[in-house]
Structures are given as C-alpha cells and as structure tokens.
User: Which sequence fits this backbone?
C-alpha cells in the first residue's frame, strides 16, 4: 500500500517500508523487516490498508495494528501495539464510506467496524454471523458495494449503507463456472475484478448488483497463465 510518500508491505513475520523518493526496486532502500509490537509469533500480516492518513494491517491470528503515515512506518515503535479482535482471523481489509470490513480466513465470517469510531481499536470491531462454513480471502469496496471472495468459487456482496456485521445483509452465491479459489480482487474505473486458481478472471460492473452471479462475466483464463493469480491493486 502507498500513502504520504511511503510504500508499506506486510507479510509473514512483520512489515517493511520504502520511501517513494528513493528507488524502491532496490532492496537496500527498504527498511529491515520489523516486528509490530505485541504481534504473536505465528502472525502472518495479510490485510493492509491505507486510508485517511493511517496504515492499518491485520493478521491471521485476528490481530490489528496501525501506523500514522506522518511517521516512519519502517520503525517498530511507530506501530500501535497489536490488539486482538476476538473471533477473527484476518485475511483482507478494506473500507467504504460507512464502515471497515475484514475478511476472515477459515471461519466463514467477516468483521465490521463503523467508520464513525476508531477502527484502529480492536474493541470497536464486531464479528458477523457465518456467511458460509468455508474460507474468505480478498475483500474489496467500490461504488457502494463490498465484495468478498473465497474458496470454491464463493462470492458475497454487502451494500455499504447497511450493517455488514449482519450476515443477512450479504448476498451470497457460488460462481457456477469456477470451483477453485478466488485469491485477489481489485476495483477501478467502476469495475470489480476477481482472479485466482487456474488463472481465472471474472469482472462485474459496479453499476449492477455484484451479489448476483448474472452480473459477473463468465470466468476466463488469460492466455499463457494456467496456474493462479495472487495479487491486484
């Protein structure tokens, strides 16, 4: 993620930073990988978001931490001590106008926080009821809709003007033409793109209801790729 002159990456074990005024294609311009204070030893920081002057990251142990982009986020002490969202296993994090959402791997749930509160505080997050019994991976927001994707072609949508901590506000379906994982998602130019196992890609115009399979294109494979896609921004 990028914000206020620095790039931040998060992964297994910690985070690293590169200032955009330097050549970030050189490893020497990235900070050493740092531990976030209070992180568990098994932490894999998966979700990372930059919004309104702060980087927020979440990990597979349900922890959350943040760093203001006015500080050097390559220094451990500038990250807030990790807090645990009870019942969460964070994979992806995003925000709409009204709320933040974390997708939880292996739990079939999501976590939500009203943007009118301090979402860097774990106590302000609420876990949803199960949307499904399987795994959710990427979560993305665009044009008033959250879209979450996961295992075995599963997709779900929640409108930002509803309470997305309530599973009843999510429209859930299984993409009938994809039985594999969705591993990554992005939004741009009024379109959602999801991609994953088998090199499969599908799109949905955000002017439609992306909680309906009919709104998504039939999954297609980009020529030359037959394995999987794992990243999009």
Assistant:
């Amino acid at each position: 993620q990028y914000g206020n002159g620095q790039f931040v990456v998060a992964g297994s074990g910690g985070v690293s930073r590169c200032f955009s005024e330097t050549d970030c294609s050189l490893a020497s311009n990235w900070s050493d990988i740092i531990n976030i204070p209070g992180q568990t030893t098994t932490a894999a920081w998966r979700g990372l978001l930059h919004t309104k002057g702060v980087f927020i990251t979440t990990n597979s142990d349900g922890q959350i931490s943040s760093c203001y982009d006015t500080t050097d986020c390559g220094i451990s002490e500038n990250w807030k001590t990790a807090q645990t969202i009870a019942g969460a296993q964070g994979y992806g994090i995003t925000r709409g106008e009204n709320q933040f959402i974390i997708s939880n791997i292996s739990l079939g749930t999501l976590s939500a926080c009203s943007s009118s509160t301090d979402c860097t505080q774990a106590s302000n997050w609420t876990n949803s009821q199960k949307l499904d019994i399987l795994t959710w991976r990427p979560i993305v927001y665009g044009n008033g809709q959250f879209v979450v994707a996961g295992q075995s072609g599963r997709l779900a949508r929640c409108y930002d003007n509803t309470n997305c901590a309530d599973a009843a506000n999510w429209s859930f379906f299984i993409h009938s033409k994809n039985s594999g994982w969705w591993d990554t998602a992005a939004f741009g130019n009024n379109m959602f793109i999801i991609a994953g196992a088998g090199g499969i890609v599908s799109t949905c115009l955000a002017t439609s209801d992306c909680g309906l399979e009919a709104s998504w294109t039939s999954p297609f494979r980009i020529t030359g790729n037959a394995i999987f896609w794992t990243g999009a921004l």
